[in-house]
């Protein structure tokens, strides 16, 4: 089974805008479509509460013919057109779909951050983890989220194996970002967030990239848009993951980043696993 995850940072912009960034985003969509994956997870779709419109669905069907899709968007009292997630999966699959709430603080449960697919013998979950924010304003809430999300994945894992993916908004160890020394209290590399991710892994999950590639360095999934040279200089972070239940780790065949060309921000991540 081949699966891809990507933080698209606005599905509407990627599909309908004429900006240079949107053109680059569509090139990434071409790359994803060429992979012919069974399941595609998209984060930060930023769609309105009512979901994709007819134009969005038409363009998606052109890119991903023969796929069904489900989505979850930010709803009141959360901000409009914020966060959001979407799954696309080949029509030959008919998973049950769940939109869980994990008793997260603030409006996090209303921000469209989690979708779970039940494939019968296993679950596939995607998450768009809340960012701790400027000045770490949301760090305390983020710590609660991390605990609640880990508990939720554990509850799934007790029933059947789990594949979990998405933008986890944390570089777990020093080798997961280019400049750890300059980012000790930056959102995504605080001790608290790293401990939260360690807790998740220790509760029964494997980081598939590290499982296959060991302590390799210099491979990242995100480069800051605000720094024009971040990708040229490979000043990146690895904050997007494919995790699997520990008992599936030896079934992983590939776990790697796909090339997103000149587009800065997130790059798609691929998992191939023998299920």
How would you describe the overall organization of this protein?
- The protein is an alpha+beta fold.
- It has a single domain (2-273), classed as 4-Layer Sandwich (Deoxyribonuclease I, Chain A).
- Helices cover 25% and strands 24% of the residues.
- The chain has helices at 11-16, 20-34, 54-63, 139-157, 191-202, 208-213; strands at 2-7, 39-43, 67-72, 85-90, 96-98, 114-118, 123-128, 162-167, 205-207, 222-223, 240-245, 252-257, 265-266, 269-273.
- The strands form three sheets. Strands 3-4-2-1-14-12 form a six-stranded mixed β-sheet.
- α4 runs parallel beside α5.
- The longest helix is centred in the middle third of the chain and has 19 residues, at 139-157.
- The mean pLDDT is 97.
For this structure, what is the CATH homologous superfamily? Endonuclease/exonuclease/phosphatase
CATH class: Alpha Beta
According to DSSP, the number of beta strands is: 14
Tally of separate domains? 1
CATH architecture: 4-Layer Sandwich
Name the poorly predicted regions: none
The main β sheet shows up as:
6 strands, mixed
Question: How far apart, in Å, are the first and last alpha carbons?
Answer: 7 Å
Strand order of the largest sheet: 3-4-2-1-14-12
Specify the overall morphology: globular
Number of helices: 6
> How large, in whole angstroms, is the Cα Rg?
17 Å
Q: Residue share in helices?
A: 10-25%
Reported by name, the CATH topology is Deoxyribonuclease I, Chain A
Percent of sequence in beta strands: 15-25%
Quickly give the structural class: alpha+beta
Compressed to H and E, one letter per element, the order equals: EHHEHEEEEEHEHEHEEEEE
Mean pLDDT: 97
């Amino acid at each position: 089974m081949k699966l891809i995850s990507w933080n698209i940072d606005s599905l509407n912009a990627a599909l309908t805008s004429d900006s240079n960034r949107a053109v680059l985003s569509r090139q990434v969509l071409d790359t994803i479509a060429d992979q012919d994956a069974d399941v595609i997870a998209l984060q930060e779709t930023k769609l309105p509460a009512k979901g994709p419109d007819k134009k969005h669905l038409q363009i998606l069907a052109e890119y991903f013919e023969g796929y069904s899709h489900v989505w979850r968007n930010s709803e009141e009292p959360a901000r409009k057109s914020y966060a959001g997630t979407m799954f696309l999966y080949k029509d030959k699959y008919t998973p049950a779909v769940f939109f869980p709430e994990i008793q997260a603080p603030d409006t996090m449960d209303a921000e469209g951050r989690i979708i779970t697919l039940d494939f019968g013998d296993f679950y596939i979950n995607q998450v768009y983890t809340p960012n701790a924010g400027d000045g770490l304003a949301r760090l305390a809430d983020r710590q609660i989220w991390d605990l609640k999300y880990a508990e939720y994945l554990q509850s799934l894992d007790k029933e059947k194996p789990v594949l979990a993916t998405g933008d986890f908004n944390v570089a777990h160890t020093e080798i997961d970002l280019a400049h750890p020394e300059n980012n000790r209290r930056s959102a995504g590399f605080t001790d608290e967030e790293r401990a939260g991710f360690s807790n998740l892994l220790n509760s029964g999950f494997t980081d598939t990239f590290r499982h296959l590639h060991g302590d390799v360095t210099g491979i990242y999934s995100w480069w800051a848009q605000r720094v024009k040279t971040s990708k040229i200089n490979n000043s990146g972070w690895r904050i997007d993951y494919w995790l699997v239940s520990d008992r599936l780790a030896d079934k992983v065949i590939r776990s790697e980043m796909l090339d997103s060309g000149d587009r800065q921000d997130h790059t798609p991540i691929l998992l191939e696993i023998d299920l």
